[in-house]
Specification:
This protein is an alpha/beta fold and 339 residues long. The chain has helices at residues 13-19, 22-31, 46-53, 70-75, 109-128, 131-139, 168-177, 193-199, 206-212, 255-262, 284-287, 303-323; strands spanning 5-9, 32-34, 58-61, 81-84, 104-106, 160-164, 183-187, 202-203, 215-218, 243-246, 268-271, 291-293.
């Protein structure tokens, strides 16, 4: 029997229970030794990670895993792969992780993109049809629709939808919107005309997108280049009745500029991310009638979706350790264009 690999499960107890299925743990056991999920702490700590990473060939991380320090990595000299079960790895590892070229890292950003795209579609459909207001008014004993009449609700087909960012989520959102027959335009300076043609979208500049679209949805990375890309210059360009959605990152939006437009009542917004998080208890997003505010739940927070995150990480560990092949790898040069 071939010698088993060593895999460290660097998850807190609740996270392990939510992403690791018993069948997937059984598969992991078939090719690797690992620290028992039942003995994981309620809060993952650097001290605990030092213990489990000493002889690890690979490890599984997710939300709640502390950032790797250079000291921790220097002690984990056998570590070849981090399989991050969540999306962004920017705050998980230092850039020196790639020094020497022996270490690799992969994430589930592409898998989570499906989740975020579905949430984006839900926001679009519920907002255009006035579902939020209809539900509120009927809960208050009415039957007429409150502020949304039966004749102001809109179908998605024929409307112009502008996506800001052709990321994994942006591409999945394009795919999920196609059957609805809407006119999809895209702003992304890194997407070529050839790629746009393959996606079946029209490239445009940011100001034109902001001024002409019925629906505007953010899917750009939360980096310094994109900070406040929605601001006091382009937020006023949104036309009356526009729907604005942010399921990406809070720093993409100058919140004061967006709030100024929202306070006029002429636009509607679905906001899943803020800067900072959580927003203050008296934040305008919490009280404005034309804002739906959710607590950063767009991606990775469904029961069946969570299990797929753990399974995908274990599959990637197996494929890499046994065959040297790695899917959905994150490389150093990719960081500046990623969330």
């Amino acid at each position: 029997m071939p010698q088993k690999f060593n895999v460290a499960i660097a998850l807190n107890r609740a996270m392990a229970e939510s992403i690791l299925d018993t069948e997937d743990i059984a598969f992991l056991k078939s090719f690797a030794n690992f620290n028992p999920p039942g003995e994981l702490p309620d809060t993952m700590t650097i001290d605990f990670m030092e213990q489990i990473l000493k002889d690890a060939d690979a490890c599984i991380t997710c939300w709640g895993t502390p950032s790797f320090t250079e000291e921790l990595l220097s002690q984990a000299d056998r570590l070849r792969l981090i399989a991050h079960s969540a999306g962004s790895i920017k705050n998980l590892i230092p850039k020196t992780y790639w020094d020497g070229g022996k270490r690799r890292i992969t994430s589930n950003a592409a898998l989570i993109a499906d989740d975020v795209a579905q949430t984006t579609l839900a926001f679009i459909l519920c907002s255009l049809r006035g579902i939020w207001d209809f539900a509120k008014s009927t809960g208050n004993g009415e039957w007429s629709g409150g502020q949304t009449s039966f004749f102001t609700a809109r179908r998605l087909d024929g409307l112009k939808v502008g996506l800001i960012g052709g990321s994994n989520v942006g591409k999945e959102t394009i795919k999920i919107l196609k059957p609805f027959g809407c006119d999809i335009v895209l702003y992304d300076p890194f997407i070529s005309q050839l790629e746009a043609d393959e996606l079946g979208v029209t490239l445009t500049d940011l100001d034109d997108l902001m001024a002409t679209c019925d629906v505007i949805s953010l899917h750009a990375p939360g980096n310094d280049d994109c900070r406040h890309m929605i601001n006091s210059k382009n937020a006023p360009l949104m036309k009356d009745g526009a729907l604005f959605i942010n399921t990406a990152r809070g720093i993409l939006v100058d919140e004061a500029a967006l709030i100024k437009e929202l306070e006029t009542g002429r636009i509607f917004a679905c906001i899943d991310v803020t800067d900072p998080e959580p927003p203050a208890e008296d934040h305008p997003f919490r009280r404005l009638e034309n804002v739906i505010l959710t607590p950063h739940i767009a991606g990775g927070h469904t029961v069946n979706g969570r299990k797929s995150l753990g399974r995908n990480s274990i599959k990637k560990i197996y494929t890499y350790l046994t065959k040297g092949l790695l899917e959905q790898e994150v490389r150093l040069e990719m960081l500046e264009h990623m969330a």
